Fold:
Amino acid sequence: MSWFERLFARQRIDADLSEEIRGHLDERIDELVAGGVPRDDAVAQARRQFGNVTRVEEQARDVWTWPWIEDLFADLRFAVRQLRKSPGFAAAGALTLAIGIGANTAVFSVVDAVVLRPLPFPEAHRLVSVWPRSPAGPAGAFNVSYPNFFDWRNENRVFEHLVSYRSTPISLTGSGDAVQLRGQIVSWDLFPLLKTEPALGRGFRPNDEDAGARTVIVSDALWKTRLGGDAGIIGRAINLDREPYVVIGVAAPGFNFPVGGEQVQVWVTLAVDHRSDTVQPVTRQRGSRMLSAMGRLRDGISIEHAGAQMNGVAASLAQRYPDENSRYPGVFLQPALGELTRAARRPLLFLLGAVGLLLLLACANFANLLLSRMAEREREFALRLAIGAARSRIVRQVMTESLTLTFIGGAASVAMTVLLVRLAVPGLGTAIPRIEQTSVDGRVLGFALAATALTAVLVSLAPAFRLLHDRLSDPLKDGAFGTVRGPGGLGSALVVGQIALGLMLLCGAALLMAGFVHLTRRDPGFQPDRLLTFSVGIAGQEYPRARQIQFYDQLLDRIGSLQGVRSAALAMPLPLTGSSMTVGFDIAGRPAPRSARPRSDIAIVTPGFFQSAGIPLLQGRGFTNQDNSSSPPVLIVNRAFADRFFPGESAVGKRIQPGAVADARGPQMREIVGVVGNAQQSPLASRPDAICYFPYRQLPWCCPSVIVRAAGLPTLLEPSIRSVVSSIDRQLPLFDVQTGDQILSLGVTPVTFLTVLMVGFGAVGLLLSSIGLYGVLSYAVVRQTREIGIRIALGAAPRAVLLLVLHRAATLVAAGLVIGLAGSIAAGRFIGAVVFGVDSANPVLLLSAAASMLAAAWLATYLPAHRAASIDPLLALRTE
Structure:
């Protein structure tokens, strides 16, 4: 019989063993009877000679089976019976642990999807992002120009492939209604960089970058929906921006690049950027920085070696082209995964640390429950010890009970995690990179199992310590009228720890809440209510510059005449979207080398924009329809620009020469004709950026968004606006329709997510801490019922009894508050990294959190204290 069969055939083995023992006894009895011994004496003599039958059976069973497995199953059965007899205790313990483990598992599922999971490409560890680097630090993404990229690609010796990419909207026509697609303009070797191939067709080739080449690779989803899933699409042309593009490939299902954003639908090569409405194509403008770059390191090349070689290339470019490149004499390399998770890594790891504290708090709470339950069972343990049970055997039984309940809580936590992921993640969209990939997979289940096992060990330590070091025989010595002992000093220490951990969670929640309130209530510089914004997919080939201007004039006139519209204007970029365009400029009378020129963000707007957006005009005048290509060049600056570059004087009337070019005349000296308020471009920026505004007719770059000020609910205008656009050109798609409030809330979505979770964890921590304090004091009152009854019988006032309980509670709470505040202050630098606009050591917020914990502790203390003061001495003594 195999070990597995013996494990589950105990009853049959026991029956066979008993039958064999009976056979031996019967044989011996028959021998004695045959020798003349009376049968009754023969039975007794045979049993004496054979020995203790039960011991023989146990010894034989130890040979045939595994005793530790038998004992484990016995302990498990006993643990289940004990939990069934105490359903309240079992439910409270399982729920407490399910909350702690479930919160950790849910947060880990997000951290795993966003931060830990490698990029979905072969040998992804060799993919690195490449940024220009100034003496002040890395310039960041979207800061590479085409000429610099071409030089990097040609002169480097450390990359197998180096690829540029930038996003662009592309309209699809001729296949149903016109629709705007999310596109990427990439260099030809994107797919070799990623070591992947399209599912159908081929990837790009070097000649696909030639001017005039029009090839496209489409996503699997676009191919199956808009293109009918026809395998014969390869080699056919589709209309993108009203130009024929030859479909050369269909990406594999699930493929997306760049990773972490919305699904890209089409990839085209940089050939499209060889065409330009400006004086020269953007591919020849070294100062026009709009690209991101990613490279694949050659085998055996470290990121440090690659950085050193690329720094040499950048230094050479800075010497050859000082006007454009002297600001960036170096290159910064970092793993591509690091760039993707850069913004989300620290907040998510902070959140993971916070739920770690919550798990410790839940463990302390459950450990106190176990200690209290042990106090009720001390006579049982003493009796078991008195009749021969080993102390280690009792410890193992109690640990088995805690392990059983812990794994029940762990199983419930998985269900809780699945529910949280399904409810919370879809509402976040793509505000956090890759968060849509959050799922409860094998890695997450493995984490849940590890967290459950760790929790089981932690919660078992306190009961095991108590059983190994306490005198379990004391309850028997006390006699039938002994008192029930409560958790004692160990339980009090756990309560102090709970209060400290709960206060740290509360402090973190208070700081994040204050930062969130600061972020959402600060003046964005414009009025987002009753605003509607959208974009129109203008095709460059069909809409040269003159026709674009004519189209937008017609569009604004018709929208302005709609009922319910107060005003309409153009803007590029929109406030609070995080988008920006930056140029260098010269200030009249302050000559500076081109490489040392000051820089500023720019925006392009039409007359009426400031009125429509609700941005106040502080000095001078706004733009008018007379500010066109034939009138003197002008611009308007915001207050931050004026304060930074013209401190202590009026900026109106000053002249600057920005590097933004509209036509063959090149950069022009422009007069500042007005100063407006600071409208935030980034929702998370700590201070407003300096911005100069250009009139659209003097710098008609493609393609601005439309901003509409409504008289009522802005969403009601969308159908009418779509009709207006369709009446002008049915092939122009309308996209990115958003209200001002949606733009505002979308910008703070990551902060909202972090704050809501942290406030929830703080509330749970406050509840668990209060429950822990209540439990310890309640058991202390039960333990001292006889003592309190005697005190009252001898004349103690109820107030004195009340103060006795409150004094003990105050000692525990004070110790917990001191430790919690010290821990919160020590963790300030970690909290400060995710708090916006609030000092992480703000005493008002920390003391407010402490006051909340103190109030909850008072409520948890009052009921046991009031119960103690209300004890009837006669009933207490009669009960004892």
Summary: The chain is about 50% helix and 15% strand. The chain has four domains: 3-65, 143-327, 344-521+749-878, 543-730.
